[in-house]
Amino acid sequence: xxxxxxxxxxxxxxxxxxxxxxxxxxxxxxxxxxxxxxxxxxxxxxxxxxxxxxxxxxxxxxxxxxxxxxxxxxxxxxxxxxxxxxxxxxxxxxxxxxxxxxxxx
Length: 105
Fold this sequence. Notes:
The protein is mainly α. 47% of the residues lie in helices and 10% in strands. The protein is elongated and about 60 Å long.
């Protein structure tokens, strides 16, 4: 079965799984349980509706767009599973690195 990317879409939309559960009037544990394994088409429709996406967008994109790896930065190891993970890490690195003043190297 294809891997769902609901958490990734939540992050992109500024939402949490709890937000989806509240919108569906169920608790987060029930939502997670209903999505693990073999989710029903109805549950996928409900989640897609809350996220404002098509059902097909809930599934992982083709492997051609896959980004996976690990990056070590300042002694911490970050796992990269999606382009969004890479963008987030890039933003974090940019925030922590102070640009050198002109003429200073």
